[in-house]
Write a structure and sequence with these properties.
- The complex is a heterodimer.
- Chain A contains 13 helices and 25 strands.
- In chain A, helix 11 packs across helix 12.
- Chain A is 27% helix and 26% strand.
- By secondary structure, chain B is mostly helical.
- The radius of gyration of chain B is 12 Å and the shape is globular.
- Classes of the chains: A alpha/beta, B mainly alpha.
- The interface between A and B is medium-sized, with 20 and 17 residues.
Chain lengths: 509, 96
C-alpha cells in the first residue's frame, strides 16, 4: 500500500523552499549551465525575484494559474520559479504544439495568464534580468500546501489531444527525495537536462537538481538532435547524470564513436521512455566507462514507477531488459481480461505511485487511465498505463509494448513494437517503424520501414528470417522498405508510428 | 523462361517485394526465412494450379513440398508440369 506520509519530517511543503534556502546560504553554487554561460543559485533566485516583481503590474492575482511558453533557458526557468515561489501553478506546454492545441490546453488547465521570457505568440513577456545581489527570499507569501498543484505537464498527445497532468508539490517532493538519493543528485552533481520542460523527465533533470543543490546542464531545444553538441556539453560540464530516451543515448554514442572519446564523468545513465535495443545496450559500456546504467519505467501521470539496475552482460544474454523493481511505495498490478494476474503471464500494467496525479485537468471523459476498472477493487487508485507487460515465472516483469501497438493479422495478435525490436537487433538497422495498414485479405498487413546505417546495404532476407525465428511467421512484415531518411519523431524523440502509418495508409489506398 | 525463374519471380513479387529475384537462392527456406507463411502456402498452391494447369491435392502435400523454390519446382514436375531445376543456377543472373 501507499505510504502517504512525507518522505522526511523536515521537508517544508513547498517543493522549492530548499532552492531558496540554498540561494540564501550558498549563492555562488552553480545552478544552471547553458550555452550562454553559467547561472548560480543566487543569480537564478535574483532573476526569479525580478520576474515576480512584474506580476502585480500584469495583474496576476495570488494563486492564479499561469502558463510559461517558450524554449528552455535560464530565463524561462527563472520565470517558472517566480510563479511557483509566489504560489502560482505553471502549465508548461511543449514548444512544438500548434497554437490551437495550446489554446485548448490553456482552457483545460484554467490558465489566467500566459507568460514567456522571450516574445512567444500572445504571451506577456517577462524577461528576468540578472540583477546584482540575491535579494530577499521570494518564498515570503502565498506558500501553498502540499496538495496544491505546482506544475501542469502535458502528455505527448501521440494518440490525440495532449492531456494536462497536474503535479502537486507533495508529488514533486517525494519524487525528488527518491531520485536525488538514487542518482547522487546534490551539491557538485551536474545533471544533463535533455528534454523540454514540458516533459515529466524534467522533474528529475531540472527540478530535483535545483531542489537538491546540483547543477542542470541545459540542452537547447533546437540543438537536441545535434550529437556533437550533446557530447560537447557533457565533456565541457563534466556531466554526472544523463537521462534519455534510447534515441538520445544513441546520438551520444554515435558522437563518441566518431570522436573516439569516452565520457568518464558520467556516473549514472538512465534509459527511459522506450525499450532500448540490445545493440544500444552493447555499445553503452564503451564510452560510458564509469557509469551505472538503469532502466527506468514511468509515465507522465504517475512519474517513475520501476527501476532496474542494468547488468549489460546479463541483459544481452537474456535478450531483454526487465522493468525491474517497483520504487518505494509503488503498487503495480497486471490485468488481463478484467482480472488481476497472479503469477506468470502477460497483461496490461496498472500502477499507483506516491508521485502520481489524481486525474487530468479539464476533461470529463471516463475513457482515460484514471477511470477505475469496474468491479475490481484491487485496482482502486491505480492508473491504467496502456502498456503491455509480461511477468516470467521468476517474477521478473518485461515491457512488451503499448496496447495500442497490438494489431491482429489474420486473427493472430501481433505486437508492432516486438517486430520493431526484432528488426532493431540487426546491426545494419539504425531506426525502424513497423505499422499495420488495412488489408482486404488479412485484415491488417505489416509494413516495416527501416532506416539503414549510412552506406550499408541492408539484407532484408536476413531481417525477415530474424522476425520469423523470433516472433513467428505471422509477424514478418509483408514489405520491408529500406530508406536513408530519418523517420518522423514525436517530441520525445520516439519514432512516431502514427505519422508513419498515415504516410503508408495513404500510399496503399 | 525456366520454371525456377518463374517460381522465384512469383514468390518475390507476391510475398517479398523488398527482395530481388537474384537474391533468392533456390534452396532458401521460404518458411523459416520469413518469406511466406501458412496463408502463403495456400496462395502458392492456387498459383501452381492456375499457372501450370495441374491439380494439387491439398491433402497430399505438406509444408516441406513448398519449403523452397527447388521443392516447389519438384512438386510441379511431379504433378506433370514443366520443370527445369537443372537450370536453377541461372537464377543468379536473372533480372531483378
Amino acid at each position: 500500500m501507499l505510504d502517504m506520509s512525507p518522505p522526511t519530517s523536515q521537508v517544508a511543503p513547498h517543493a522549492l523552499s530548499s532552492f531558496v534556502d540554498r540561494a540564501m546560504r550558498a549563492p555562488a553554487t552553480p545552478a544552471l549551465a547553458s550555452p550562454d554561460g553559467a547561472v548560480t543559485y543566487g543569480e537564478l533566485h535574483a532573476m526569479a525575484s525580478d520576474a515576480a516583481s512584474h506580476f502585480a503590474r500584469l495583474g496576476l492575482r495570488a494563486g492564479a494559474r499561469t502558463a510559461v511558453l517558450g524554449g528552455k533557458s535560464p530565463e524561462t526557468i527563472a520565470l517558472v520559479l517566480a510563479c511557483l515561489l509566489t504560489g502560482r501553478p505553471v502549465l508548461l506546454p511543449s514548444v512544438d504544439l500548434n497554437p490551437a492545441v495550446v489554446h485548448i490546453l490553456l482552457q483545460h488547465a484554467g490558465v489566467e495568464h500566459v507568460l514567456a521570457a522571450e516574445p512567444f505568440g500572445e504571451a506577456d513577456v517577462v524577461r528576468p534580468s540578472r540583477g546584482a545581489g540575491v535579494g530577499e527570499p521570494l518564498l515570503s507569501h502565498a506558500v501553498p500546501g502540499p496538495q496544491d498543484i505546482a506544475l501542469m505537464l502535458t502528455t505527448s498527445g501521440s494518440t490525440g489531444l495532449p492531456k494536462v497532468v497536474p503535479i502537486t508539490h507533495r508529488a514533486i517532493l517525494r519524487f525528488a527525495s527518491w531520485a536525488s538519493d538514487r542518482f547522487d543528485i546534490g551539491p557538485g552533481a551536474n545533471v544533463l537536462s535533455y528534454c523540454g520542460l514540458n516533459f515529466d523527465l524534467s522533474i528529475l533533470e531540472v527540478w530535483t537538481t535545483l531542489m537538491h543543490g546540483g547543477c542542470a546542464v541545459l540542452v537547447a531545444h533546437d540543438r537536441a538532435t545535434r550529437r556533437e553538441h550533446l557530447l560537447d556539453l557533457i565533456l565541457r560540464h563534466e556531466v554526472n547524470v544523463v537521462q534519455g530516451v534510447p534515441m538520445a543515448l544513441g546520438l551520444l554514442l554515435d558522437a563518441a564513436d566518431v570522436r573516439g572519446c569516452a565520457v568518464p564523468s558520467v556516473r549514472h545513465t538512465i534509459l527511459t521512455g522506450d525499450a532500448a535495443s540490445m545493440n544500444l545496450l552493447a555499445r553503452l559500456p564503451g564510452p560510458f566507462e564509469r557509469s551505472e546504467f538503469y532502466n527506468v519505467y514511468g509515465c507522465t501521470e504517475t512519474n517513475d514507477s520501476f527501476i532496474h539496475v542494468i547488468d549489460v552482460q546479463r541483459e544481452l544474454e537474456r535478450g531483454a531488459i526487465p522493468l525491474g523493481d517497483p520504487l518505494p511505495g509503488v503498487s503495480a498490478l497486471i490485468v488481463r481480461d478484467g482480472q488481476v494476474l497472479d503469477g506468470a503471464g502477460s497483461g496490461e500494467l496498472w500502477v499507483s505511485t506516491p508521485f502520481q496525479a489524481d486525474g487530468y485537468l479539464g476533461r470529463r471523459s471516463r475513457d482515460d487511465g484514471f477511470a477505475q476498472q469496474p468491479g475490481v477493487q484491487a485496482l482502486e487508485g491505480h492508473f491504467r498505463s496502456r502498456d503491455l507487460v509480461r511477468c516470467d515465472p521468476t517474477g521478473m516483469v518485461f515491457l512488451e509494448g503499448r496496447t495500442d501497438a497490438q494489431v491482429k493479422v489474420r486473427g493472430v495478435r501481433v505486437n508492432l513494437q516486438a517486430v520493431e525490436q526484432a528488426l532493431l537487433t540487426d546491426p545494419d538497422v539504425a531506426e525502424v517503424a513497423v505499422v499495420a495498414v488495412d488489408d482486404e485479405l488479412a485484415g491488417k498487413r505489416l509494413i516495416g520501414i527501416v532506416r539503414r546505417r549510412p552506406g550499408i546495404q541492408v539484407d532484408t532476407m536476413r531481417l525477415r528470417a530474424r522476425c520469423a525465428r523470433e516472433l513467428g511467421r505471422i509477424a514478418v512484415p509483408a514489405t520491408i522498405e529500406v530508406q536513408d531518411d530519418a523517420l518522423p519523431k514525436t517530441p520525445t524523440g520516439k519514432v512516431d508510428r502514427a505519422a508513419v502509418r498515415r504516410i503508408f495508409q495513404r500510399g496503399v489506398s | 523462361m525456366n520454371t525456377a525463374i518463374t517460381v522465384t519471380q512469383f514468390i518475390v513479387d507476391e510475398f517479398a517485394p523488398d527482395i530481388r529475384a537474384d537474391q533468392l537462392d533456390p534452396d532458401h527456406d521460404l518458411l523459416d526465412g520469413g518469406i511466406i507463411d501458412s496463408l502463403g502456402l495456400l496462395t502458392i498452391v492456387a498459383w501452381i494450379e492456375d499457372r501450370f494447369a495441374v491439380a494439387v491435392d491439398a491433402g497430399e502435400i505438406g509444408e516441406d513440398d513448398l519449403r523452397s523454390v527447388r521443392a516447389v519446382c519438384s512438386l510441379i514436375e511431379s504433378l506433370g508440369g514443366p520443370c527445369d531445376t537443372a537450370g536453377d543456377r541461372s537464377l543468379k543472373g536473372a533480372p531483378g
